[in-house]
Amino acid sequence: MSKVLIVAEHLAGKLNAATAKCVTAAQALKPESIDIVVLAADPAGVAAEAAQIAGVARVLTVANAANADAIAQVLAPQIANLAAGYSHVFGPSTTFGKDLMPCVAALLGVAQVSDVMSVEGSHTFKRPIYAGNAIITVEAPTDHAVVATVRTASWPEAARGGSAAIEAASVDVALPTHTRYKGLAAGKSDRPDLQSARRVVSGGRGVGSAENFKIIYDFADKLGAGVGASRAAVDAGYVPNELQVGQTGKIIAPELYVAVGISGAIQHLTGIKDAGTIVAINKDGDAPIFEIADIGLVGDLFKILPELEAAL
Amino acid sequence: MKILVGYKRVVDFNVRIQVKPDGSGVVTDGVKLSANPFDEIALEEALRLRDKGIATEVVVATIAPADAQAHLRNGLAMGANRAIHVVTDQPIQSLTAARVFLKLIEKEQPDLVILGKQAIDDDASQTGQMLATLWGRPQATFASKLEVEGGKATVTREVDAGLETLEVDLPAVVSTDLRLNEPRFIKLPDIMKAKSKPMETIAFADLGVDAGDTLKTTHFAPPPKRSKGVMVKDAAELVAALKAKGLL
Ligand SMILES: Cc1cc2nc3c(=O)[nH]c(=O)nc-3n(C[C@H](O)[C@H](O)[C@H](O)COP(=O)(O)OP(=O)(O)OC[C@H]3O[C@@H](n4cnc5c(N)ncnc54)[C@H](O)[C@@H]3O)c2cc1C
Ligand SMILES: Nc1ncnc2c1ncn2[C@@H]1O[C@H](COP(=O)(O)O)[C@@H](O)[C@H]1O
């Protein structure tokens, strides 16, 4: 029987929704137990949140001032130390998990399964390669723990309503001091978080400028949607990098995705294939985005978006 | 200062990948191969550090079959001083690649190793992190800005929440994100010059790397197809279509 350890992702004292998605993926293993580990300077608040995820047996906390910021080379030895006794160690396929989990795998001397889309057996998983243009089935060796990242767009969040036991864990490992955290520049936004929003409106190069992006923000606010962008829009400086959707940005799965002035390059489509309904607004009727859109509208975004806002 | 750069050969990013009907792999016969885009960025960044006088030598390394020499010549033509070709016919997964790079580090003693944040064939995004771990040195992944001074690197990283800054002691491993730089184009005279630059070949078997613990791929499938959508003619029809789907 499987025993799963999930590494909690958190920022500024809040648990990231990706953690509850990892729990859903872990449940697909039909495991004996699922534990979550919270590494932080002061893990109490995050641990209390994690304990409410249904299906979690225990929340382990590792309090250490060195864990104040998520530095992979600091966190990894602690997780590897706790991994004994677990058959699976999961983390989310966010930048946090992508940075950290391969370090855990290397310490345990095991290959990592990146971006788990589905669980086919205790050691068999499906994952995307070539920007999602092929899905492979991989088997991990059965003689030691599986380290994996969970593709968050493939899994819903596990429900709340649990009451896991919270236990302080002690780890006795030397931590490196070669890496210093200097800060995070984050765009402040009251809009829904791109990775968990039910609706997302994205703008591309067609929007034309940073000033013009207001039309995207206004429309998104009317819908109560998160805002995303193509790489071209980020590169052109219309919006900050954390808004990028796609192969090298965020992979998202909202119920509704509205692509505005985005051509539909394969690297962008990779990020939105799991969306429930894709709407495309583009003035070029031959744009590839229309090949995967559920609802397409050919026309000038500067004319259509105000009309849509008025009709809502 | 010496910089070691990972320079993987992959299927070109413009190729539309086809899965073989029998699920045994993807079609690679006759398909265009190029340097991994993130690795071109890695090489460009190393060359810029050399242009600024911070680095003195840039070494590109690849782990690939014997026919990858032309690929390495491109790296030399772009400006690398030397190339190392670890020759193997087997596809190499990230953990094994990291173990190979560790051997190269022991031999070359670089002050900085720059890899791509991911290889766009396997999309694993693991090698740099695994290498830093095995080496016991700092990592700064997904870099969009890199400054090297006085035995330290200050790295801006593209993370989900925004832009994070780390300061790491050297030697360290940095992995590149797309916005770090725009790689230079190779000029014809440089291709000629590259022919006389040193290229060392090492048989994978001679490195004594443990190639155990790999994932076994049992099946390849095309991604699920989305069903064909509808076109609407104006904003009013779009709103009606969204209402019909219960989305508004
Ligand atoms: C390794 C790699 C990774 C990449 N990763 C990503 C990624 O993660 N995400 C990503 O998005 N891209 C990524 N790209 C880039 C990708 O290939 C495309 O270049 C990019 O997605 C194009 O952005 P765009 O659609 O906004 O721009 P364009 O392709 O220039 O399209 C703009 C569109 O706007 C339309 N338009 C213009 N004006 C109007 C108007 N007034 N009204 C309506 N429509 C209008 C045009 O018809 C056009 O279709 C990556 C590329 C590489 C090589
Ligand atoms: N076979 C290889 N040859 C050269 N570099 C490699 C190889 N495999 C991985 N790398 C480096 O490691 C990075 C990340 O690869 P991956 O972990 O496979 O996504 C790549 O961008 C390269 O810089």
From TrEMBL, chain A:
Report the SUPFAM superfamilies cross-referenced here: Adenine nucleotide alpha hydrolases-like, DHS-like NAD/FAD-binding domain
The free-text note explaining how the cofactor binds reads:
Binds 1 FAD per dimer.
Which parts of the sequence bind FAD?
Answer: 205, 230-231, 244-248, 261-268, 282
Q: Which UniProt keywords apply?
A: Electron transport, FAD, Flavoprotein, Transport
Cofactor field: FAD
Instruction: Output the Gene Ontology terms for molecular function.
Output: electron transfer activity; flavin adenine dinucleotide binding
A Gene Ontology biological process term: fatty acid beta-oxidation using acyl-CoA dehydrogenase
Note the InterPro entries from the entry.
Answer: DHS-like_NAD/FAD-binding_dom, ETF_a/b_N, ETF_a/FixB, ETF_alpha_N, ETF_asu_C, ETF_asu_C_CS, Rossmann-like_a/b/a_fold
> What Pfam families does UniProt report for this protein, alphabetically?
ETF, ETF_alpha
According to the entry, every stretch annotated as the Electron transfer flavoprotein alpha/beta-subunit N-terminal domain falls at: 4-185
Tell me the domain of life: Bacteria
User: What is known about what this protein does?
Assistant: The electron transfer flavoprotein serves as a specific electron acceptor for other dehydrogenases. It transfers the electrons to the main respiratory chain via ETF-ubiquinone oxidoreductase (ETF dehydrogenase).
> Hey, which family's this protein in?
Belongs to the ETF alpha-subunit/FixB family.
Protein name, entry field: Electron transfer flavoprotein subunit alpha
What is the phylogenetic placement of the source species in the record? Bacteria, Pseudomonadati, Pseudomonadota, Gammaproteobacteria, Lysobacterales
Automatic annotation (TrEMBL), chain B:
Q: Which family does it belong to?
A: Belongs to the ETF beta-subunit/FixA family.
Q: Which organism is it from?
A: Montanilutibacter psychrotolerans
What does the subunit section of this Swiss-Prot or TrEMBL entry state? Heterodimer of an alpha and a beta subunit.
Q: Which UniProt keywords apply?
A: Electron transport, Transport
Q: Name one GO molecular function term.
A: electron transfer activity
Please verify whether the record's keywords include DNA damage. no
**A GO biological process held by the record:** carboxylic acid catabolic process
Gene3D superfamilies, from UniProt?
A: HUPs (3.40.50.620)
One Pfam family recorded for the sequence: ETF
Q: What is this protein called?
A: Electron transfer flavoprotein subunit beta
Job description of the protein: The electron transfer flavoprotein serves as a specific electron acceptor for other dehydrogenases. It transfers the electrons to the main respiratory chain via ETF-ubiquinone oxidoreductase (ETF dehydrogenase).
Q: What are the Electron transfer flavoprotein alpha/beta-subunit N-terminal domain coordinates in residue numbering?
A: 23-211
Which cofactors go with this protein?
AMP
